[in-house]
Every structure is written in C-alpha cells, then in structure tokens.
Design a protein that fits this description.
2 copies of one chain form a homodimer.
Chain A (H helix, E strand, L loop, with lengths): L6 H8 L13 H7 L9 H5 L20 E9 L4 H19 L30 E6 L39 E7 L2 H14 L4 E10 L25 H7 L13 E10 L1 H4 L4 H8 L36 H7 L5 E2 L2 E8 L4 E12 L2 H11 L9 E11 L11 H5 L2
Antiparallel strand pairs in A: 1-3, 1-4, 2-3, 2-9, 5-8, 5-9, 6-8, 7-8
Helix pairs in contact in A: 9-10
C-alpha cells in the first residue's frame, strides 16, 4: 500500500507537519501503527479521496496538515438542558463522519415536498480533506441551566487583556466553536451550514471568519500576507505533540483534548508595504525569503538568541517578534490562515490579516508568549488584534462514542 | 504537443466553457489557430505552469474558464490628467504580464534598505491561472479633469433601479475595476495589492469582494450556495462569444471589449433551507441535482417554455427564474462566484450569496433580463441585491501596446 503515498499524504496520516521527520515510504506501516492521530483504519481509499479520518484519539483539524481553507464559526448555545446539549453532539457525530467522508448528511433521493436533508452545494465535490474540530468556550459553563459549572477546567477562562488589543465584540468569545478546514471553501462552509441547520434552534451563529492558506504545490510552510512563513517552529513529532498540544492523560474530561485560541489579527498592509525589507526582517527576526533566523541560511536553522554580528550586536533584535516569542520559552501549535474581508469602510484600508489559531495543552503557553511580546514587539506597529476567543477542544471520538462524551459522562 | 492536454486545459486555451463543444485532442491545433482568445503563443510551458495568456484580442478573465477564486476590486481614480491615467495603464501592463506569468513584479534581490518591490506573499506559488480584467466605470468619464466625457460609450451608464434592489453604497459603483481571478486566493489578492501599490496615489480602493467557485474535479458547472448549477446556458463557441460578449468591430475604442456587470446578491440561506425541494426547483425552473430544465433529464437539454405536463400545465412555471430570464430572449456570459463574508450583524444571518458577474456586448441584455425577472421572479423571495456596478472592459492587449490604449488614442 505504500506505493502511492506521497509525503503530504504520509504527513496527513501521521499527523506530522512538514518539518523535522524523515521517514522512507517503506517505513510507513510501522509509523502509522505507532501513532494514534486520526489514523485507523488506514487504507488506500482514504488517501485517494482526500479524506481525513474522523475517529481517533484526538480530534481532526489539529495535527491534520493545514488545509487551504477554514470556515471558523463561533456559536451561541440555546440548549436549555445538559441533555439537550448532549443530544446535539450525539446528532453531530454521525453527520460529521458523513461530511468528512465527502457524503451528503442525508439521503439525496428525499421527498420533494420537504426541504432537502442536505443543502447540496457540495454535490460533485469530494471530501477535500475536510476536518471538523469542536470546542466549548468558558461562557458555556456559566449557563446555570446546563449544570456544567463544576466541570469547567481551571485553564479555560477568557484571555486577559493584552497591550495593544483593540478587540471588537463582533469577533470575540462564543459558547461553542466549529473549526471546519478543507481544501475547498464551499466544502468547509457546507459542513458548518449543515451542522447548524440540523441543530434547529439549539445554536445561533455568533461570529464567523473565513481564511485561506497559500500552500506551495511542493509543500513547505505557507506565507502570510506579510510574506513571512508562518508555522516554522511548530511541533512535528508525536513526542512534540504530546509535550505541546495534547492535555495529559488521566486529568479530566479534557484528556487527549487541547485548548484552541483564535485571534483575528488585522495586518496593516499599507504601512508594512512602506517598510524596508531590513526593517521588516528586523521586526520578525527572520529573513523574509528563506524564513531563516537573521544571520542564518535555512528556514529550520535553530534560533540562537545570543548570536552576534562582528560588532558584537545581537543578530536577532531584542524587540523582534521571534526573539520575544522564543524568550517566553513556551511552545504552541500554530495553525493560522490569512483572511481578506473587503476594506475597513472608515479608512479604505484592507480588512485583511491573520486568523491566528493555536492549539496548546495549556492556554498559559499562549498567554506567556503574548505577554512576552507585550508592548515591545516591533511587529505591533503593523498589526492590531481585533478578535479573540478560547475554546476547550474535546478529545477525539472512538467508534461507538460521540463528540464530547467525556464531558457529559463526568459527574 | 497535444499529448498532455486535458479537457480543461483545452477549454482554457480555446476560451470555451464546459458546454457545447466536443473536439478531439487531435483537432486541437486547428482550433487553437482558429481562435483569438488569449492564446498565442501556445506552448506546453504555458499549460504546465497554470498560466493564462495576457496578450490577445480580448482581455483575460472573460472567456477564460472560470477559476476557483476572485478578488474583485472597485477603485476610485485620483489621477488628475488623462496622461496620468494613461501612464497608470502603461505601468500596469508589464506588471500584469509578470503577475500572470507567476513572477514577482520586480527583482526580489532588492536593496534591503528600501521596501521590497513585490510584496512577496506568492513566493513559492505558481501563476495559479491568474487572469486580470480591467474596466472603467461611468463615473470616470464625468471627471472633467480627465477630458474623457466625449468618449463615454452610450451603453455605459449606471444601471437602473430594479424592483427589489436594496443596494448598499459600500458595494456600488467605481471609476475603475480590476477583476483578479486565480485558483489560489492569495495569488488573486497579491495581484490587486501590488497593482494598487505601484499606482501610488493614483487610485484608492472603493470596495472589494472575494468569491469562490466549487469546481468539480472532473469538470462541469459549479453549484452556487443554493446548490443549483450556475452558468449552464453560457455561450460556448467562438460564434456565441461574438454574438453575446464582444463589442463588434469598428465601432469605437470598445471594439473587442465587453461590458462587465457585477452584482453582490445576498442569498437568504436560512429561508431557502426551509423550502421544499419542489418549491426550490419551481423557483429556479430546473431540477437541483441534474440541473436539467424541469421535466427533462440532462443539464444541457433545451429549455422549452411551452412544455406541459399531462394536465396541460406548464412544466417550467411562468414565475420561475429560468422562464422569466429566457423570456427576455437575451444572452449574457455569466461568470459568477459564491461569497461568504461572515454574518449580518443585525440579524445573525449568513452574509453569503453570489458575486454575480456577467459580460455582454451591450448592458441592455442584462437590463432586459433583470426587468423580465422584475417583481415576478419567485427567486426574489430568497435573494436581495446589495451591490451593483458596471464597467466597460477594454479590448485585449497586443504585444507592444498597453491596457486601454484605444481609449487614450481616440481623439
């Protein structure tokens, strides 16, 4: 079965990102067995049809190699009892399996006198590597009628205010999120639309954001709208993921889950575009074209914060994004998308930037990094955080179980 | 050279859409020669690198098979003389060639002490079938300082108010448009961003809209967010294009050009999704899944407005979209995209729908169709027109010439 497996497909199966792991095709079977990320059953059909597995130890859309598009939906929950909410996730489970399998959520030879079960706009498209990631926000646990307050993880609370935040309530918070990622934007949209439609009156859209990734045909880290590679230092091995992303075993209903942080970061492209390459690179702490740390040659060369030039001056400036982020000494999984949503009507500037999404076993990692960036980060001059939310993403779903089961069966 | 040409690639070269023309690969050379749409020089490299030709009798992005993404930009012109505007198009010509060739607009080994010439976010991506279409709006001719008033075609005027229009000024009008279409959204965005950036103070963004198309891997007409195929009756042969799209020879600077009409049409998905399949089909006048006219089996079966069922009742309802549109007896080239831009904050409904774009040799064709739809079209219940603009698109550019030359050299 290894005959047709490309590097990207293998990475998809093993849940590894582009960096750091080289495995020959012949070694694939063993690797697949050794890992638990959205893997089994592994078969050629799965690969051929651009499908991501729904079932697994962890949810899809996290270790899954990043797709071209995201439709991120933050929802308000209207369910009035815990059982109603539980039923919603039970309902969404088989629907998610079908969607990620590239199928309609219901029989298409439906009774013409009722609305079609599936809205149908993906007919003719394949699964397009759709992944679906579900999470719950802090506000869900404050809904007394749901009786979930005692199950709120201590890590799950609204993010603190960071210097330079200029948040717009229209892109903040949410009781529940669905992150739908796919290589076709209509597939991602269709998934959210149909899940919400079937939830009839149990949820409302609070905010949504689309995003895209410029994936080079030959693989490699995509560039954001500042033209810098985004995601270079991501975890890549299963050990990295265990250390950085997955909540440790045995602690709570969140075991094998993770925390999702989403930030809608406007990039001031006009200002950026008036900045010299040298200053752009000094703001990031990396070279633009290669992605290498300043003074080095290759994207994956190690970032050495003590490296100096011949005048004994730090190569990576102390106020650069990379310097400050690394100084926090915390790791997160970045899984970001660019967005371009028209113009800001007041100024005529591009309403464009980064839909930053990160996954981490403890939100403190993100908070520490963000606090380290603080007021110092030279990149601050070019960006403004406009939206923010945090969600606790359930562990993966085993066959016969349903999304979020551990939350509902914990007393 | 025909050995590796797929149907899609052939269609791209011949400027034909999916319907209507079947040519064996062996017949390709002759067809290519017989047509003038963005063709020459035709070579394997052009195909291999996902490139659309810039030069040709007509501009790209019109007869070009529709791409996955659009970044549509409507601009305000700040140039204060005709020569300044002319210089802008002269500047944009070689830049457009480079962009459509998948190249940076300038040398990337630039002086690090100045801003990079190219913003760089497409490094690592190929041309992604980028097409660029330039047009000028009626308001451009009203700028006295430009002295173009006498060159305004009588066909180029703001569209009349149509029943059910609820236009938002934030998505209307413009002195100039750039329609950037590509199979990668970052490539489309990059093109507009760099053209505008180089136009330093000569243009301002007025409004922009992104859109996408759900292109089936095996070809065929894409579905809109109502799940109906969009573009079935499009012109497909060169004769069709001459009859429908291209302004006739010898009449004016618009010879071989065309008129672009863009409408931002919100689709009320929530209402639609509560409608029975039968009523959805009755609103369109077609079957959803096959795309066939009601009562027929295949998408491209002819629409017969007189066909009746066994009770002598019209198969295609008189108030259906297809019935009314066909009744106008006018043809246009539809080249639409879906959009999904978050939610309408006041209602929480999807801000999603159709970025309708059509090309026609005379805007009256669109106006007649729209007037025929009028208040009767049953689809009106599910859609609202929110944005509108019209642009006169120049003819194509010959080597050694520049975009819009005919406009500037006509006395």
């Amino acid at each position: 079965m290894s005959k047709k497996i490309t590097r990207r497909e293998m990475l998809k199966l093993t849940g590894m990102t582009a960096a750091g792991v080289a495995i020959g095709a012949s070694g694939f079977g063993g690797v697949a067995k050794a890992l638990g990320y959205n893997l089994m059953p592994v078969d050629d059909n799965l690969l051929a049809a651009n499908k991501v597995m729904f079932y697994g130890k962890h949810q899809s859309g996290i270790a899954t190699p990043v797709q071209k598009h995201v439709y991120f939906a933050s929802l308000e929950v209207l369910a009035s009892t815990k059982e109603e909410l539980q039923d919603l996730f039970k309902l969404w489970t088989p629907l998610s399996v079908r969607l990620m399998n590239g199928e309609d959520i219901g029989d298409s030879t439906t009774n013409a006198y009722v609305p079609p079960t599936d809205t149908g706009e993906t007919n003719g498209l394949d699964a397009s590597n759709l992944s679906l990631t579900f999470g719950v926000g802090p506000s869900l646990f404050e809904k007394k009628e749901l009786g979930l307050a005692h199950l709120k993880p201590s890590e799950l609370k609204e993010l603190p205010h960071f210097p330079k935040d200029q948040l717009d309530e229209a892109f903040c918070g949410g009781d529940l999120c669905i992150q739908a990622c796919a290589d076709d934007p209509q597939v991602a949209f269709h998934a959210v639309r149909n899940l919400i439609r079937q939830a009839s009156g149990k949820v409302l859209l609070k905010w949504t954001q689309t995003g895209f990734n410029a994936l080079p045909a030959n693989g490699g880290t995509p560039r954001n709208l500042f033209s810098f590679k985004d995601g270079t230092v991501n975890p890549s091995t299963p050990t990295d993921f265990d250390r950085t992303v997955w909540v440790d075993s045995g602690k709570s209903w969140m075991t094998n889950g993770t925390y999702l942080i989403v930030r809608r970061i406007q990039m001031h492209l006009e200002t950026w575009d008036r900045t010299s390459l040298k200053d752009q690179e000094a703001a990031f702490g990396r070279h633009r074209d290669s992605g290498a740390p300043i003074g080095k040659t290759n994207e994956f060369d190690e970032v050495d914060l003590t490296a100096v030039d011949k005048n004994n001056k730090l190569l990576i400036p102390e106020d650069s994004h990379v310097f400050l982020a690394k100084k926090a000494n915390k790791t997160i999984l970045r899984r970001a998308f660019s967005y371009s949503s028209g113009i800001v009507s007041a100024t005529g500037a591009y309403d464009a930037g980064l839909l930053f999404i990160s996954f981490q076993k403890d939100p403190k990692s993100f908070i520490d990094i963000q606090n380290s960036l603080g007021r110092l980060d030279r990149l601050n001059e070019y960006i403004t955080h406009r939206g923010s939310a945090i969600f606790a993403c359930f562990p993966g779903v085993a066959k016969g179980s349903y999304i979020g089961e551990a939350l509902f069966t914990t007393l």
